[in-house]
Structures are given as C-alpha cells and as structure tokens.
Write a structure and sequence with these properties.
About 0% of the residues are buried. The chain is mostly helical and about 130 residues long. Helix 1 runs antiparallel to helix 2 and helix 4 crosses helix 7. The chain is elongated and about 60 Å long. The longest helix is centred in the N-terminal third of the chain and has 19 residues. The protein has seven helices and no strands. The protein has two domains: about 50 residues, no CATH class; about 70 residues.
Length: about 130
C-alpha cells in the first residue's frame, strides 16, 4: 500500500477519534483533516476544495445562515410555539411536529424545512 494511503487512513482515524472524544465542532475537525491531507501532498488543492463550489453545499450553508437569523429575530419562534405547544413526551412532540412539517413538505423541499426547524427541535431536546 502506498504511503499516501497510510496517511489518508491515519488522518481519517484521527478525525473520527477527535469527533468521538472531544467537543470540537465537526466542521473544524474535518476542515483540519482536509488541510492536513493537502499540506502532506496526499490530496491536491483543486479536488480537495472543489466540493465547496458545489451548488448544493452552498445552498445548505446559506439556509443555515437564514435559519440562524430567523431564530435570532424570533420571527418563526412565536408561530412554532403556538403550533407545536409544549409537549410532555417524545411521542407527543413527534406528533405535534409531524402535522405542520408534513403539510409544509408538500410545498417546500426538505432541506429548508430541516434548516428552519432544527433550532426548535434542539430546544425541545434541551427541555
């Protein structure tokens, strides 16, 4: 097996262990792994960075920015609290969320829905 393959395996295992054993953000760990592979010459810069030019990746990134701004302004929070209420169990939370999200899923793609409702599901999980 070539030396570059061993480097790739080592960096992959290191990233997985770092993700599993620390609280460092996923994006930071994976970007550090990619940077390490580029610095060691295992992956050239062109193919390594070409994923960032993918329209889907940029769309998802933009949707998370919009969802974050929407959460900070509270524009969607009031509506979500009124529709979803305060569930007392996991099953009730799933049922409360399923109806409006299923309805909106008819008119919207699933990625914006996930980006929009992810903060609220996280809040529910914290409670």
């Amino acid at each position: 097996m070539p030396f570059s393959a061993w480097i790739s395996i080592l960096v992959t295992v290191d990233c997985l262990l770092t993700l599993a054993l620390t609280r460092i953000g996923t994006e930071m760990v994976l970007l550090a792994g990619l940077t390490l592979l580029m610095l060691m010459g295992t992956v050239s810069a062109g193919p390594a960075l070409s994923g960032f030019s993918n329209e889907s990746v940029l769309t998802i990134a933009a949707l998370y920015v919009v969802a974050g701004r929407r959460r900070e302004t509270g524009a969607l929070g009031f509506i979500v609290r009124q529709v979803f209420g305060r569930p007392r169990s996991t099953t009730e939370a799933q049922l409360c969320m399923m109806q409006p999200v299923s309805f909106l899923g008819v008119f919207m793609k699933n990625t914006p829905l996930v980006a929009a409702f992810l903060p609220f599901v996280s809040d529910w999980a914290g409670q």
